[in-house]
Design a protein that fits this description.
Layout: E1 4-7, E2 14-17, H1 22-30, H2 53-65, H3 70-76, H4 84-95, E3 99-101, E4 114-116, H5 118-131
Length: about 130
């Protein structure tokens, strides 16, 4: 699944069309609270130093339902295994105390899962109040 790229010769930009994975569309249809927002900036993740706000929101929303491992998160976002951008975003959410380890004494445990903290829950509720 490659993006379609249109390059404009006289201008210093190009237009990219990205397709949404079918698994994500199915997940959105099942979960009525999920919101797709248009991107207001380039979000290439760790490579450009820009952290994707939508991924943060997706993780918080996912953890609102139950605890998840990073692998479970990756699978629910349409990946087969964890990836660098997910690792970085989860780490930043833990540092911001929005999510927490289920086994705090062993952060590198192979059975480690993450849960939404009260701070993360309040932030997510405030976000949805603003959107309405």
């Amino acid at each position: 699944m490659f993006p379609n790229v249109l390059t404009v010769r006289r201008h210093s930009y190009f237009l990219t069309t990205l397709k949404i994975r079918p698994q994500y569309i199915k997940q959105l249809k099942e979960n009525k609270e999920a919101v797709i927002q248009p991107k207001s900036q380039i979000e290439s993740g760790v490579e450009s130093g820009v952290e994707s706000e939508p991924l943060r929101i997706q993780i918080l929303h996912l953890l609102k339902e139950r605890e998840h491992s990073k692998k479970e998160m990756a699978i629910s976002f349409g990946h087969k295994k964890t990836y660098r951008h997910l690792d970085e975003t989860v780490r930043s959410l833990v540092e911001a105390q929005m999510i927490a380890y289920t086994i705090p004494d062993k952060p590198q445990s192979r059975v480690q899962e993450y849960r939404l903290t009260d701070k993360g829950r309040k932030w997510l509720e405030a976000l949805y109040r603003v959107k309405k």
